[in-house]
Amino acid sequence: MTTRADVAKLAGVSESTVSYVLSGKRSISEKTKKRVLEAIKTSGYKSNYAAAALAGGNSKVVTMMISNLFTTPSSRINGALVEGIVDGVSAHGYHGVIWPVSDNDDTDVDSLLKSNFSGGVILMNVKENDQRVQLFNRENIPFVVLGRTQVDFAYNYVDRDFREVEITAISHLVDFGHEHIGVLVSNFGLTSHLKEVASKFKTKLHLIDVPNTPEGGANLSSIIRDKYPKVTAIISFLDAATIGFLEKAHESGLRIPEDLSIIGVNILETQATATLPPLTTVLFDAYEMAKSCGELLVEVMENSKASKPQGRLWTGELKIRATVAKVRDSK
Amino acid sequence: MTTRADVAKLAGVSESTVSYVLSGKRSISEKTKKRVLEAIKTSGYKSNYAAAALAGGNSKVVTMMISNLFTTPSSRINGALVEGIVDGVSAHGYHGVIWPVSDNDDTDVDSLLKSNFSGGVILMNVKENDQRVQLFNRENIPFVVLGRTQVDFAYNYVDRDFREVEITAISHLVDFGHEHIGVLVSNFGLTSHLKEVASKFKTKLHLIDVPNTPEGGANLSSIIRDKYPKVTAIISFLDAATIGFLEKAHESGLRIPEDLSIIGVNILETQATATLPPLTTVLFDAYEMAKSCGELLVEVMENSKASKPQGRLWTGELKIRATVAKVRDSK
DNA sequence: CTGTTAGCGCTTTCAG
DNA sequence: CTGAAAGCGCTAACAG
């Protein structure tokens, strides 16, 4: 194994110079830098992660804990989130890895804690009263939650600003005369503000609970017909179900958006433009949001002392694709 | 931060004794062991992963690289595999993490290599001519491939013994008089031996290519009716598609197994017993297979020298659930 | 702009 | 059965 010392000898500089070339933490003349870089290449030197972590007193590894990674049909959104986090932290020299957790067992979390392996954690898909939140907090491990469970979440988090997002979507629908709007969700944890928003716009909101799967969406039009006949527009928080719904819509003779308008508020743009018709959305840039989440975690890790918990909320602008239709006069 | 030294002082022993209590690498009197363990608990000591890795000269982290983790509908099988690997390696004191790879970018693989972070790698969902295989081999990084791409794979691997599995399935079907058997696959990389098996049993095999999704399976019965009218039995390598198929089967008036017999050969038992009717399978214990894969990697890591590449093949016995029907006499 | 050096916390050999 | 001590390869403070 080649070490920093070998490289130093080869380049004819001191060991610390090699380190500083690699870290960029002090200025180096172009000449020596070039020589060092060359020596690194010819020697095939690879830095030793463990030594760096030990000497630096910090673990530059960020672990992502994703609940239900394999038990729910994985949405593309998870992919965008992971990619964003990885990019967000690796820009600061950190590595992002996924720490596998089985759903019915806490030993995974334990072993993470006990190993002192990870310098920080990002919790994804947290449920209400998720024990891990308390645990990491108590153990004083830097962590950020991506997607909070309560509006007044008291720890570091990054999430969409659901309230703003809904106002954007609803105000657009209200402008077009919709009075009964269905809201597609798969759990009701974060819907506390909906009433307030609804009354502000003098609209009736109907919470519709379907699983976020293509099949869940495929059943939707009959559910609406049977149970929510007054609904003329949908705001959807579900990506897979929305796509499944749109695919089946014309089969069941439902025209989008003439018969039913739909706005996706939690769907990637690549997904929204791939549907037929393309979906009107409130922009959801999961990648950027996750990247910011990664950066927040790095900040937290680097000022591990003090600094109050902060929340970062992400909204997005309206992207009109299929025109949202006015409610028919016949109504 | 409490260190081993603190614990040693508290317990009134030397630092090395603490280490040996933890590692179990030499015998310790019950008395001191108890005292040390107690001191560990009261001091809240947590071992420092980086220091251990540096001093020990090895990284006890195993990274799993799973292609398309988020772009294919995640099958439960991946979950079982990951769980198996984690358990397999953690029994030997290793940590298993998932290293996220974006499908269109090699920088992830690079950064893994350059960081010297991982002591060993498990490659999953490898494609034919996967570049990573060559790369890890050249860089001399211990790795095992879970699911090979060729029958004569020249590196360490763990996989199902497809040939044996198929013989089990086919011989059962042949016993019941089936002469045209459809084989459900989503890629044709490993089908080279099928011809041989088919001729051995004087059976005609029809490769049927459907995506491994519930929707893919839902379309299957019409595909068979239209394109493969002679087929009276199916051997399926696809889990999600098979489940989708069975769900739709009776809707389309197809009786299982009377009209079409089906044997799942790549489906978890929990999935197979949840279908209606329960699926006849050739047992596929993904968890145990993956566990063995993790153990193989640990072996490779610990004798990093020499030792020729080895392959471990897993077969399974027939589990008859729905009786496989005899071909109708009318044929 | 560059070199020297003291550790980081642990593993493991050597010596009892 | 237990202790002492030499590093593992790197970071970062200190000294030019």
User: What gross morphology of chain A would you assign?
Assistant: elongated
Largest sheet of chain A: 6 strands, parallel
**Distance between termini of chain A?**
78 Å
Beta-strand content estimate of chain A: 15-25%
Please tell me the total number of domains of chain A. 3
Number of strands of chain A: 12
CATH level 1 class label of the largest domain in chain A: Alpha Beta
Uncertain residue segments of chain A: none
Q: How does CATH name the architecture of the largest domain in chain A? A: 3-Layer(aba) Sandwich
Q: What's the order of the H and E elements of chain A? A: HHHHEHEHEHEEHEHEHHEHEHEHEE
Proportion of residues in helical segments of chain A: 40-55%
Largest interface: A-B, 40 and 41 residues
Keywords (chains A, B): DNA-binding, Transcription, Transcription regulation
Pfam family, one (chains A, B): LacI
InterPro entries (chains A, B): Cro/C1-type_HTH, HTH_LacI, LacI/GalR-like_sensor, Lambda_DNA-bd_dom_sf, Peripla_BP_I
Domain HTH cro/C1-type (chains A, B): 3-46
